[in-house]
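call fold(seq) -> tokens
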Amino acid sequence: MENGNPPIITKDFEMYEPVLIRNPWLGVILVMVFYFLFQLIPQVILGLVVQPIFFVLYPYVPRIIEFISLGILLLVLIPFVFRIPNNNQSYVEYMKDIKVSTTNVKAIFVGLITIAVVFVLGYGAVYLSAVLSKIYLVEWRGYSELIPIEPKVNWDPTYLLDPYASMNIYYALTPGIMEELAFRGIILSLLLKKYKTKTAVVIDGVLFGLYHLLNLLFPTIYYLSGVEGWTRTLYFATVQSVAFQVVYATSLGIAWALLFVKSNSIISCILGHYLIDALGNLVLIPTIAYSWIYFISITILGIGILPAIIDILIINVFYRKKATSQYPTYSI
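ret:
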């Protein structure tokens, strides 16, 4: 490097680079497709060899299998078969490239601040949605039987250990760790080879949000509010709920992508993602909810657009120096 300018990438050098690195979008698509397949195929196989009652009696088993399957993909196949994101020659190099081994105390501190913002705003948004939902249902729709129910956040720690919940402190390990390794550690690192930092960060967040459309294919647990309290039922996610999820996942994905680049650490992203999924039920379940009011409140005010904007401002305050990509840029 001379005069602060990056080295020129010559054709001779490109010849030795794997095609997935010289063509980052091929690598991005491959990672997303294989991530989905390594989620889906083990569950399909398990469903073919066991009776449905197995999933009721042993709800943790499918999650453990999913975690192991994705671990094999992201920690074995991606670095040593596909050799992305940076043609890794050793496991140590791979851990450094995806920012696992480059974490620092400042990155953890900033990550915790950003996640605190999400939880505070999330609690406020859910409380607001409960108040507005009761007003709408009682005053406009005439559900007078809801009057005794106090609109508030249903703070119940038992959700955190409920094996039949869509997410608890154990289930959150898979998205918290594996999604961050895939979307920030690998996909974002590939995008930084082709685009400037701001563009790569936004694209990564959008891809992360759009990936949640696949939740339409998987059943989950939905807590339904009613006169007699919350009841639990299995359902396939509605287009409505997933559409809002795409929006707030995109928003948080952009914030986490920026944190990854600025802090040079993926651990802070993993920590934030895990805590939202693991502890979210403490602040995201109201005693009464009307779906549209609830989803709009949490998407705009709670765990989506507003907290993402505030988190981006916080990250930029702590990391004022302009972030630059460590990867060579290829013209494709």
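Residues 99-318 form one domain.
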